[in-house]
Write a structure and sequence with these properties.
Blueprint lengths: L15 E2 L14 E2 L2 E2 L2 E2 H21 L1 E3 L6 E3 L4 H18 L10 H16 L4 E2 L29 E7 L7 E4 L2 E5 L3 H4 L2 H16 L2 H21 L4 H34 L6 H4 L1 H11 L13 H10 L1 H10 L1 H11 L13
Parallel strand pairs: 7-8, 8-10
Antiparallel strand pairs: 1-4, 2-3, 5-6, 9-10
Helix pairs in contact: 1-6, 3-5, 5-7, 6-7, 7-11
The structure holds zinc ion (ZN).
Zinc ion binds next to helix 5 and helix 7.
Length: 350
């Protein structure tokens, strides 16, 4: 299919944009010549492009909202109800995909992952583990209510399923509202419970910030914008490439940075040492090696590792403020100092 200016003579003078090839249509229609179709001339195409652009712009502007936790403006065209439905499907699909490869819930590794998830979600009122009683809302004993806003995206009644995929060759972790899933392959990278808490905190951070819905919202705009760029004279390949490198990838990197920010806060609220988050830099490298991620920043879905570690370090003072303001964290620290509570290592040989 050619997308360049036409050389046909049966339409008005001036370069015309060929939009469709004849093989896709019948011979009916007003502008057919030399076996090619020309639906609109340049002027009409420009008018159509401007109209579509205005409609798209209006749709975009009316669906902008502010992220409560960071103040970032974002395009959101997926409702919380739609998000819930999509994530229920995700949980079912994950259970289906990894059937027969999941560790039982009473396995020591599953117990560790469940403990970490329990601490993270209950300390931020994000829900409770499936099969367990919902705890009292944290506000009842909240030591830091006003200065540090609590994530409101998830309800304390939400039930969470924790899955551990028994596959050492798979280095992966992901979360959705009501689901935390990690593979045993990530345990050697996490090394200890706090390392794994940093990973799970980051994944739950994506959930709290509704990043999956943001990706889906963005996907709704992708094809219409490419169509608009094509209408305005850019080739489809160039349009898709521009969208990817100037919109999709920078957006993806911004969401990763935001999940890092939320993840370290969630960790601190759950009394996990926030300092474990920048130390988790090895995880970023492991992901990069496995996914053969690009070395050029502008081609990457994630920010460069060094940049992420530096960003996490800048978040440490605020995170320790959260950690130190929670009397429960101080008690745990004191118990560790006295040797009553050793830092737990992941038992990766289980
Ligand atoms: Zn992420």
């Amino acid at each position: 299919m050619s997308w360049g200016p036409s050389d046909c003579s049966d339409i008005r003078p001036g370069p015309a944009i060929q939009i469709l090839s004849p093989s896709r249509f019948s011979s009916q229609g007003p502008n057919r010549g030399n076996g090619r179709w020309h639906l609109l001339d340049r002027t009409s195409t420009t008018y159509l492009g401007v109209t579509v652009g205005a409609l798209l712009g209006g749709y975009y502007v009316t669906h902008l909202e502010k992220v409560p936790e960071t103040g970032r403006r974002r395009f959101m065209a997926v409702s919380v109800e739609q998000e819930d439905y999509i994530h229920k499907l995700m949980v079912e699909e994950t259970l289906q995909d990894f059937r027969g490869r999941l560790l039982p819930s009473n396995h020591p590794l599953s117990q560790q992952v469940r403990r970490i998830t329990r601490r993270i979600i209950t300390s931020s009122n994000l829900g409770h583990l499936q099969g367990e009683l919902a705890p009292e809302p944290v506000e009842m004993m909240d030591p830091f209510p006003a200065a540090i806003p609590r994530p409101q995206t998830l309800h304390p009644d939400r039930e969470w399923v924790v899955l551990v995929i028994n596959d050492r060759s798979l280095v992966n972790a992901f979360a959705a509202p009501g689901l935390v899933c990690v593979s045993t392959g990530i345990m050697p990278v996490a090394r200890n419970e706090e390392g794994l808490a940093a990973i799970i905190g980051h994944e739950i951070g994506h959930v709290v910030m509704r990043h999956t819905s943001e990706h889906l919202s963005q996907a709704k705009l992708f094809l219409p914008i490419i169509g608009l760029l094509v209408m305005l004279g850019l080739g489809p390949f160039v349009s898709a490439l521009m969208m990817r490198y100037f919109y999709v990838l920078p957006h993806s990197r911004a969401l990763e940075t935001e999940a890092d920010l939320m993840g370290i806060k969630l960790m601190a609220r759950a009394c996990y040492d926030p300092g474990a988050a920048p130390r988790r830099g090895r995880v970023f490298e492991a992901f990069k090696r496995l996914e053969a991620v690009n070395t050029f920043k502008f081609l990457d879905t994630h920010p460069p590792t060094e940049e992420r570690i530096a960003h996490l370090k800048t978040l440490l003072p605020a995170s320790f403020e959260i950690y130190n303001s929670n009397p429960e964290c101080s008690q745990l620290d004191e118990m560790r100092r006295r040797g009553h509570l050793s830092r737990v290592r992941m038992n990766i040989d289980c």
